[in-house]
Write a structure and sequence with these properties.
GO molecular function: ADP binding; ATP binding
Largest sheet: 5 strands, parallel
Helix content: 55-70%
Number of domains: 3
Low-confidence stretches: 1-12, 103-113, 151-160
Number of strands: 5
Distance between the termini: 36 Å
Keywords: ATP-binding, Nucleotide-binding, Plant defense, Repeat
CATH class of the largest domain: Alpha Beta
CATH superfamily of the largest domain: P-loop containing nucleotide triphosphate hydrolases
CATH architecture of the largest domain: 3-Layer(aba) Sandwich
Mean pLDDT: 77
Domain Disease resistance N-terminal: 14-102
Pfam family, one: NB-ARC
Structural class: alpha/beta
Protein name: Disease resistance protein RGA3
Strand content: 5-15%
Strand order of the largest sheet: 2-3-4-1-5
Length: 390
């Protein structure tokens, strides 16, 4: 049982890191010049390790200790990879913030990572070392009898889209968004929209501003749980495939009823069985599609379901065009930047999870100065505190 739990937990952890690799590989490739190949290799290595994890729970009793040691090593490497990818993602957002706030000279003098060439060399070295550690770990897996098990038959080349889920992770920190949560929850549960079906609200904001984290907070509110009889979370990312969205909806509602993705009629029949006369909330996270025809096709399918009035769709996106295409009845919610104090609060929570921990004055002074230069972006605040420890 212990091995089975470990396998599940670390598969989930690796999936989170895999999502970051996929997202970063699909975007900002100019900054990744010089280590793009290492990023792709890391992506492939993590997929391979994922397959080995599926075999953890099948080991005989006499191998439990050695397998647990292998999992501990994987955990350490996974955390290292997670920190490095956070650092890379931070650098992407930081450069955007510099440009927007005309702070380039000031920040460049403050942070040594600002030299693109030096940054690329540093990242290439770190990711190369992680990749080598994963190669060694794969060799150990074979030596101790772990046999790779394919999770599914999906072609490896189709796994590059970012993935999110509705669960709030231990490291996810929400600060300064209480009013946003209250406004969105109030709108989604407003009785004046109960006669309407599939009103759509879009949450719009720049990358790293916390759209997904905000959507998770709303999704997990007690009032939302009481108001909607069913809740569904779908990460859309770069690929807006109507049938795939329908399939992911069905997988969450009833995993035992999953027809072929290509059979739209069967998908709609099964979805209707699950959602008939029910009021539901559908979250479409990280939407990039700006093709209004694709959006219309999805809405046409959803309108065929005989769900109850008051069902809603919440979309998160960076694109104002996506928001204008998707929004229906409900006013979009533009997510603003945080204050310097709120960024400092995020940094403190990241560095000191124990709220009673004493913070030395020198650290507090430096931290507050760094918080002022975060541009109000939560992701920048989270990762800058990591960089202070590297």
């Amino acid at each position: 049982m212990e091995g089975k739990i470990a396998g599940a937990v670390f598969t989930f952890s690796v999936e989170g890191i895999l999502s970051k690799v996929a997202s970063l590989a699909a975007q900002e490739l100019s900054l990744a010049w010089g280590f793009k190949a290492e990023l792709k290799r890391l992506h492939h290595s993590l997929l391979t390790i994922q397959d080995f994890l599926q075999a953890v729970s099948d080991q005989p009793q006499d191998r439990v200790m050695v397998v647990e040691e292998w999992v501990r090593k994987l955990k350490a490497i996974a955390h290292e990879a997670d920190d490095v990818l956070d650092e890379f993602e931070y650098e992407v957002v930081r450069r955007k913030v510099e440009l927007q706030n005309h702070m380039k000279k000031k920040v460049l003098n403050f942070f040594s990572l600002s030299n693109p060439f030096a940054f690329r060399l540093k990242m290439a070295h770190k990711i190369k070392n992680i990749n080598q550690s994963l190669v060694d770990l794969k060799g150990e897996a074979s030596f101790i009898g772990l046999v790779s098990k394919r999770i599914d038959a999906t072609p490896r080349g189709n796994t590059w889209d970012r993935q999110t889920n509705a669960f709030v992770g231990r490291d996810e920190i929400t600060v300064g968004r209480e009013d946003d949560v209250l406004k969105i929850v109030t709108t989604l549960t407003d009785s004046k929209y109960n006669q309407e079906n599939l009103a759509v609200m879009a949450i719009v904001g720049m990358g790293g501003i916390g759209k997904t984290t905000l959507a998770k907070s709303v999704y997990n509110e007690d009032l939302i749980h009481k108001f909607f009889e069913a809740k569904i979370w779908v990460c859309v990312s770069n690929t807006f495939d109507v049938n795939l969205i329908l399939l992911q909806m069905l997988e969450q509602l009833n995993p035992t009823k999953v027809p072929s993705k290509d059979n739209q009629n069967a998908l709609l029949i099964f979805l209707n069985e699950e959602l008939k006369d029910k009021r539901y909330l559908l979250v479409l996270d990280d939407v990039w599609n700006e093709d209004s025809e694709k959006w219309s096709n999805l809405m046409e399918c959803l309108f065929k379901l005989k769900s109850a009035g008051g069902s809603k769709i919440m979309v998160t996106t960076r694109s104002t065009k996506v928001a204008s295409i998707s929004e229906k009845l409900l006013r979009r919610h533009d997510l603003g930047k945080l204050s310097a104090d709120e960024c400092w609060s995020i940094m403190k929570k990241k560095a000191f999870p124990n709220s009673s921990a004493h913070i030395v004055p020198q650290f507090k002074t430096i931290g507050r100065e760094i918080a002022k230069n975060c541009g109000g972006v939560p992701l920048v605040a989270k990762v800058r505190i990591i960089i202070m420890y590297i």
